[in-house]
Amino acid sequence: MSSASIHKHTAILDAAYELFGSGGFYETKMSEVAERAGIAKGTVYLYFKNKEDLFMAVTRRDCEGFLQQLEGKLRASGSLTGKLSVIAAHHLFYYYERKQHTKLFFRAPNNNPELVAYMALFMDEYMQAVVKVLLEGGASEPELMAKSYIGMLDRLKMDILFDPSFSEEDVHKRTKFAASLFIGGAVANMNASLGDLPAGQ
Amino acid sequence: MSSASIHKHTAILDAAYELFGSGGFYETKMSEVAERAGIAKGTVYLYFKNKEDLFMAVTRRDCEGFLQQLEGKLRASGSLTGKLSVIAAHHLFYYYERKQHTKLFFRAPNNNPELVAYMALFMDEYMQAVVKVLLEGGASEPELMAKSYIGMLDRLKMDILFDPSFSEEDVHKRTKFAASLFIGGAVANMNASLGDLPAGQ
Amino acid sequence: MSSASIHKHTAILDAAYELFGSGGFYETKMSEVAERAGIAKGTVYLYFKNKEDLFMAVTRRDCEGFLQQLEGKLRASGSLTGKLSVIAAHHLFYYYERKQHTKLFFRAPNNNPELVAYMALFMDEYMQAVVKVLLEGGASEPELMAKSYIGMLDRLKMDILFDPSFSEEDVHKRTKFAASLFIGGAVANMNASLGDLPAGQ
Amino acid sequence: MSSASIHKHTAILDAAYELFGSGGFYETKMSEVAERAGIAKGTVYLYFKNKEDLFMAVTRRDCEGFLQQLEGKLRASGSLTGKLSVIAAHHLFYYYERKQHTKLFFRAPNNNPELVAYMALFMDEYMQAVVKVLLEGGASEPELMAKSYIGMLDRLKMDILFDPSFSEEDVHKRTKFAASLFIGGAVANMNASLGDLPAGQ
DNA sequence: TATGAATGAGTATTCATTCAT
DNA sequence: CATGAATGAATACTCATTCAT
């Protein structure tokens, strides 16, 4: 692929990322993608088989970037607690930085088995990255714990996407909160005794 | 509204619930909804303004049912820990019982502000129900905690939806796991010491 | 099917007959068919699955009409020679009457197996009708003879389709010529002896 | 035109002949033609103005070859009957030898006046070749007779194209049958008297 | 109320053709 | 001469919605 080709390939992915991201799969027109990429409609089809293929490619690039960055950051960080904080920060800031374009990324074509399979794979890889961290601490149910942590983070991210007044500082607070809650549990954030809590749960 | 009308209204909602639930908004046809409801295509429009309106109504009924049931269960339960367990059980079993039809419910029309607003409202009401419970324990950041708990539960529910071998027993385990992790934190599930954990976090 | 439906069905077939007939399959647009039939584009699809289906239906109606008329005329006619003349007249006048619309009917979608099969069936039925006549005369190779006769007629019809000055009288002459040539052979139309003709052939 | 050019010109014609022949005009892509000819897409346009021009050239080469071969064979043959047999054999074997590639040759672009004109010209030249033979026998309606003979042959050729089990021997039989029927007429193939045949027709 | 025939706006995709290299 | 990346016109088909009955 020539450098011009690569440039066009990237331009299409970028355009599609923004449009799929804000309008979703069904409400994004291939002609819009072409226009935003600064090329002709037919040209899109020289690089991607069809609309679903383009959506897959956009998703793939995004997910791979997410995981690669995460792994780099985890390698560079130390203690267990530090790593859990890194995960939280990565998750929240990743979306914070892309809030313009990922608002509605979760609007995907509904019955595309390939996409469903890929998303499952992504989720699994993400989870395994977290599991690996947890195992260092000797967690007994690392997969469930990893899923729980990811779920927490994913929900905490929603406000970031939809609340335009969210500041970087706010994201930092949320990051610390998430790691702390996950590690210490609700009990650590409460004044009242939890005397009725079954011990060891 | 006559009783015949109510019956038809309900039949349409039921049909739409199943179809939207398994195929998503865009891949569900109004004609299919009518057919499954046992009425004529035009009749759907006597009860719902248009496809989005129908989707809204389906969503609303589902969310309201979810919240009402939750509130009933919370009133009937005692301690803080008990209530947190009730929330987890409700969230997971709700989807467990509807796994046939909610698989893809999260595929919604992408740019409908009314729907977005409603979902935000639902999330807020759900969160407030959890907040109310947490406040009994004197939580300091009850909203963030509530969101985190809901996020955990939502991710833990995904396997239930997509893994057909999931048994009722498995759901029970997950329920206990979720409540326990949320209350006691990761530290309680780990063998290794978390000596590097900043105290009080 | 209501009478209005039948009317529309027929109107579409008529419109398609004329357009396919003069422009061929590929150069006829469904929107033109609809317009000429006086209905909306979408309505065509209520009556015919797609463009190929419509083409098939048009072809079928035309071929069936051709054969039915032929059979009626054959029943009403007497001697072997008379029947052969009836066949010739039917073939030539059928196209003479439709010269406006069948000029290019032989431009069909190229790779439609169903259509190919149907045309083979039609040709076979046509041939069998001729074979039946020939068998009354004790022909020894009736199928090849039938095909030959049909081939003659089909070529003799071409001028009718493409020559606008062709009169009904001309068609009559051609009819007589065809029957006579087929029955008596070239030898009957020649002054010179055909002494070198293998005897008995 | 250099020899390399001639080679490319021929390669394109060969490729187009096979593809148009088996897929028809509309379902053959210029890119396929180029690929099969072993050249780039754009190069085709250095040799042929456009797709229709290429189709014309392919048709022309085929028709000219058909006529030239026929004329050569006719010069080499003797009696009237012999010449008629030569015509039949030529027509049938020509397609027999090309059955792979001419199955669908008759699927031409529908509204190309130049092509229509050329085909008329070809038909006329073919007819004149036959007429010339028939005039040696003093035929009174040589053109109609020629057309009829060609029509017969054309129909008799169809089975050859579509029936893969057709042997060379079968083609021979058909050749003899055609010439014999044309010369002697149906009456020669029948047991029954044709007493009602108008004398001299 | 209920129907369902009719509508027509809306869009992904193809492919002949061009032209800068 | 040769290339092949880029173009964009052109069209079948779908399906939400309407409205005469």
UniProtKB/TrEMBL annotation, chains A, B, C, D:
Residues 29-48 bind DNA. It comes from the Bacteria. InterPro entries: Homeodomain-like_sf, HTH-type_TetR-like_transc_reg, HTH_TetR. Residues 6-66 form the HTH tetR-type domain. It holds the Pfam family TetR_N. PROSITE patterns: HTH_TETR_2. Keywords: DNA-binding, Transcription, Transcription regulation. Gene3D superfamilies: Homeodomain-like, Tetracycline Repressor, domain 2. The keyword DNA-binding applies. This is Transcriptional regulator.
